[in-house]
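Notes, Module 5: Reading structure tokens.

Key idea: the token line is not a picture. It is a compressed description, and you learn to read it the same way you learned to read a sequence, by spotting repeated patterns. We will look at two proteins. The first is printed below with its tokens.
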Amino acid sequence: MTGVQTCALPIYDLIGDRRVIEITANPPMTGFTASKILWVQNNEPDLYEKCAHILLPKDYIRYKLTGEFATEVSDASGMQLMDVAKRCWSDEVLSKLGIDKALVPSIHESPEITGVIHKAAAGETGLAAGTPVAGGAADNAAAAVSTGVVREGVAFTTIGSSAVVYAVSDKPRIDLKGRVHGLCASVPGKWTVMSCTQGAGLSLKWLRDTCCITEIEKAAAEGVDPYVVMDRMAATVPPGANKLLFLPYLMGERSPHPDPDCRGVFFGLSAIHTRADMIRSVLEGVSYSQLECVEVFRKMGVPVEDMFVTGGGGRSPLWRQMLSDMYGCPVSTLAADEGAALGAALLGGVGAGVYGCVEEAADTAVRKNKTILPDAVASASYRPYYTLYKKLYIDLKDRFKELSEV
């Protein structure tokens, strides 16, 4: 390709603030492929001139296995180059960003067969030549299949260092405020709404490493994880953590406040508070942040009536109960939590004809383990604290900005 024209204008200026979200279902973010492509255009134009194909990591592996340049909707919709509602590349976005459509691969549905293992790849990998290769999925889209989140009404919350809430919708849902992400689901004909909060389990780890040396030593003596000891301590504290609130913005925030300047806050800290109160406050603050995202989903018309919880935080019965009380719906763990790998395998099974559809594959493979139901008394106890929690970001937003500029 030749004659590339680069432009240093941000995506908002090239496409329009509202228009970019209308098409791609997401506000521009540096983590999306479109921003990375523009960076290469503007900073390494000679390298961009040599570009023959633009592929996501898993799609490069597909190319090496099959010789096909292909991708699938769930991963491609995170590139910010697609018309998410129409499940295809956006000619408008590609044109305004100066990206030749010939550079992007063909788009397929996640369980669709996109090629077969060729002889050279079979010789290098030991896989049988002719083995079909399905579209696959992005990490959370594959995890959704392995947790049974393949229909409206069901969602999952993953609490790791960051946290994700992921739900399926029967039609495209777009939040024009950019608080949550809209993507194509790995289930053909369905879409997803997804939130991502930055400092979930990371907040608890920070507290452990910074303030809980005694608990770490006690856990070592008992032969258990320090989080088990911390959980026990938090369980002795009533909902509301004795009027102590925590804003989990240790890494800035993404959902539902796309704000890199906001920072963590303990609000209401006084001499009466103990480490147990602080631990409980962190657990509750992370839970409030997830509830705030779920409320956005519901206001967008995405029902959340049943919730799975996965990730390290999902191992805490106390944390699961908090989430159930706040969400107002059952919260379950999985009998076998194999994550995205199982989801990808099930998608391959659909493509190979083992299952008739993605829903059938999930129904066959996914089983609930333990289910926690919301406690009405606890739910009512959290409500005034949650109302105050939501006000705090609004009150502090400008102060966060001032702090970043000091």
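Here is the second protein, with the sequence above and the tokens below, as before.
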Amino acid sequence: MTMTPTSTKTLTISDETYQILTNFSTINSSIVFKKGNLIRTIANAENILGEYVSEEYIPQDFAIYDLSEFLGVISLFNEPDFDFDTYYVSISDDNKASSQYFYADKSMVTVPPDKGVELPDTPIKFVLGDKVLKHLLQAASVMSLPELCIQGDGDVIKVIANNTKNTTAHQFSYEVGKTSEQFKAVFKVENLKLIAGAYDVTISTQRLAQFTLTDGSLTYWIAMEGSSFFGGQ
């Protein structure tokens, strides 16, 4: 499906955007769409923020309480069109099927801050390939490891699937870059809700990491766990 808006209040949605929204529903079951082409979500715990630059231009602000349900309704249609009203969106297709889906009260949804996240300049950057990411997450699942650690020893950067609370736990790692820094950035695997792809990764001493798809369209900011450290701190 490609975007073919016919007025300021109608649009269709691309397959890519549908996939991103499916991913965002794992971060927060609710979402507030803002007028424009920037779609953002934040976890209720405010430790994961996602931001996507979509093909579509959303014509107005509205909230959806159950995003998975909303996407399920969309899946009932063959190349659906969306017509936005004050209180609901009408969904229809060429087969004459239609639905009215009502918006939620925005006060019921955790909304990302208006101001975007800006990380300070940092030398801790590397590219995390799509196959490497997939392999690490598979290893964490196979060995029941709850964390991924991005670790620098002053020479190389490794991403390690492990359990920092168990010194005898199995590990699985990849070397992904070079660094002169010593640090360990610890993330719960359950918080790495990344859609499949290759990412430009930035590690900040603010205990926050930025994962941006290499095409620049999608970015996640994910908070580190308390056991993370930089330069021994």
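Summary for the second protein:
- The first helix runs from residue 15 to 24.
- Helices lie at 15-24, 67-75, 130-142.
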